[in-house]
Amino acid sequence: MTNKRAGFATRMGAIAASVGSAVGLGNIWRFPYEAGQNGGGAFILVYILCVLAMGIPVMLSEFVIGRSTHKSMKGALRELSPGGKAHWFTAVCITGSAVTLSFYSVVCGWVCEYLYLSLTGALSGHTSQEFSEIFGSFVGSPWRCVGWTLLFLLLNYAVMMRGVEKGIERISRVLMPLLFLLLVVFCVNSLTMPKCREGLSFMFSIDFSQFTFRGAVDALGQAFMSLSLGIACLITYSSYFDDKTSLTRDAGIIALLDTLVALLAGIMIFPAVFSYGFQPEAGPKLVFEVLPAIFQQMIGGQVWCILFFVLLLFASLTSTISLSEISISYLIEEHGQSRGRATLWSSIVVVVVAVVCALSFNVLDDIKAFGMNIFDLLNYASSNFFMLLGGMFTAVFVGWIVDRKIVRAQLNDGSRLARIVVPCMVFCMRFVAPVAILLIFLYYVGIF
Ligand code: PFF
């Protein structure tokens, strides 16, 4: 391990950091609106199946690559297939990470604005209609959107530049459980809402009559986004894991916690959606319209609101740190750059694309491709193209190319559970994930 790379203080630190990467806006902002757009219960069921049959296997394939070599992606692929060309795929993952970080930091900017509004008390005393207007007028303003995005990226830059991830890691061990607790409180609160039953039945009653193939693609993309898969993030993080941890157990813990947070976010949001007359299929704005309405009717609403947005901002930061680390560790290890230079170059690219994304709701809103504005397009391409492609690549690479002995040595921890689970996971890695993703790509190019 080179000492230039960020390291994790302890074994728990590495797992906590992976959970920190996984839990973020993907769970709290993206999962509810994706579920809302795709009919609720059927989407959630397919999502959970995707996590089990493809998410965990792909996560394990990333872990095998990272932990067996203790290198980030390019060096790891070179070591695992000497003389092969697989390492060139790193470029796709780095591009995917930059695309993801760009649109993601725009949403982090939204969180900053909402934190600011909650501090000034501007989010109290409104009707549902007014909450929709508040969001609309905010994203309609180029200065505010771009300003907050840049401010967030500056914060992320400062953290990456100083290599203070270790400090962040320590704080996150307090703040992440706190976020979890807060979500539980908000869920209990949502269960007292007048149309709680409608909200829960939207989430948990399964009706496939409206569910489409496109919905299934979204569910898989969402699973990969939420678990931070397919763009080398977990390869980078697992290169710091120690050799004794059980990868199967860690993958299970990460997937379980991540899915739990997404479900809690749904249980908090949907009763409120129905009680206050919002539309479940509203898309990316859904959570930002509904959350203030939830806090407003709680005793001490403003305090809850501030606390929630602080914790959400923090959870988002632990995710953007992991996204940034992908290209930074690549530039340091493969191009011999200093941490400062690597951070600067990768940030410049992201700033440019993020600003364009932030402007796609206002100044650039008439630029559309495939019926989407630039933000929506990058949001879609990130999960449903880059992450799926990368996930298929790592699953095939570990399932078919890497020496079987290495894979077995990494995954078998000697426990009885591993003896049952590992063969299933390897089967999914070799067949289920690659075939399913291949079908999706055939669907994209119109073959079926
Ligand atoms: N998993 C993060 C979330 O759910 O918010 C987003 C993410 C982080 C995706 C890191 C990909 C990644 F490499």
What does this protein structure show overall?
- The relative contact order is 0.20.
- The chain has one domain (11-444): Hydantoin permease (Orthogonal Bundle).
- The mean pLDDT is 94.
- The radius of gyration is 21 Å and the shape is globular.
- The termini are far apart.
- The protein is an all-alpha fold.
- Helices cover 76% and strands 0% of the residues.
- Bound molecules: 4-fluoro-L-phenylalanine (PFF).
- 4-fluoro-L-phenylalanine binds at residues 21-22, 24-27, 100, 225-226, 228, 231, 233, 319, 322-323.
Give the secondary structure arrangement, pairings included.
Layout: H1 11-22, H2 25-37, H3 41-69, H4 73-80, H5 90-120, H6 128-139, H7 142-162, H8 165-190, H9 196-204, H10 213-226, H11 233-238, H12 247-275, H13 286-296, H14 301-335, H15 339-359, H16 374-401, H17 404-411, H18 416-444
The protein binds 4-fluoro-L-phenylalanine.
